TrEMBL record, chains A, B:
It is an enzyme of class 1 (oxidoreductase). It holds the Pfam family Nitroreductase. This is 5,6-dimethylbenzimidazole synthase. Its EC number is 1.13.11.79. Keywords: Oxidoreductase. GO terms for molecular function: 5,6-dimethylbenzimidazole synthase activity. Coiled coil: none annotated. It comes from the Bacteria. It comes from Deinococcus navajonensis.
Amino acid sequence: MQPGDRDALWRVLEARRDHRHFGTDPVDDAALGRVLDAFRVAPSVGLSQPWHVTVVRNATLRQAVHDNFAAVRVREQDRFGGERRALYASLKLEGIREAPVGLVVSFVPPVEVTLGTTSGPSALEYSVVSAVTLAWLAATAEGLGLGWVSLIEPGGLHAALGLAPHLRPLAYLCLGHPALELHEPLLQTVGWAARRPLALDWRD
Amino acid sequence: MQPGDRDALWRVLEARRDHRHFGTDPVDDAALGRVLDAFRVAPSVGLSQPWHVTVVRNATLRQAVHDNFAAVRVREQDRFGGERRALYASLKLEGIREAPVGLVVSFVPPVEVTLGTTSGPSALEYSVVSAVTLAWLAATAEGLGLGWVSLIEPGGLHAALGLAPHLRPLAYLCLGHPALELHEPLLQTVGWAARRPLALDWRD
């Protein structure tokens, strides 16, 4: 590392947002390559690297992913009532069709015992999440926007994309050029939720 | 962001390691504060921020955490056979007692419905993992070493530290000054596992 790298990291951390508004310009291949390269440097329990990425640029398939999302969204809306429900209905939650690239990040369950998983097997899925998080920062540093769409039913996603049987989709990421400049979480801007101070205690 | 921030991010990403060898020098309060500040900028599903951090500097409590780890390690060793078992027995897997700071990152299950969790409630725990991952980078950028010890039985950890009932320990992190310079994953250096190219396919 070099002097100034800490401040640079913090500029990237502060700039990272969950984007849902994208332009339709294509993503440069070299930039996409660097986003994917984040998986190379990601931590994983027992160095298991239990992940697989499917890059979805096909617009018909992205429409199918959006159909999946739309059905889940309807179900979720029913879980809220009153003013909250009306606000929910007004939110834009994803940019699946606009963003030129979708990334399906799948968990690949290892066939052998993995070091570090005896008391908590979820550490394997957590490794995939860490890798996604680093890819998110790599995208931010490219000036790209990334949005993690969690309202997707994984079985339907698996079928729509014809994924291999051993893959378990864990994250669907929209990647493209951001169409909105966001200086705080969008859910805070629209009044859905607010950032809170860190809940913290000490054992000295 | 500024020109050069992308390269700086990559230097931090390449420098991040899972550390198990620590000196016993204390961690500077300002540096610790910046590591914890990573939670402020972490993504979370529905802006739920479902996390809590307990900072453990007390040596007696860290010894208790180590006892928990040691018991799980014995169980895990039994899952390997032959040469693999002998290699496992030789590995240093944590620095709980040497590292002057332990961080227990707990998941705090929200009491209300969280936006974005209808098709995958695990997105809440995943948010905690993303935050831990950012804290890991923040520590790296401080020149500190961090190690995620996944071989800890969460119920015993909860009891030993007297955590509040609503907290579910998800990660135990060792934080301190690294005593070994690592240029690749330690598990690769010792021949336990090797990095693989990213498994990738395309839907164009």
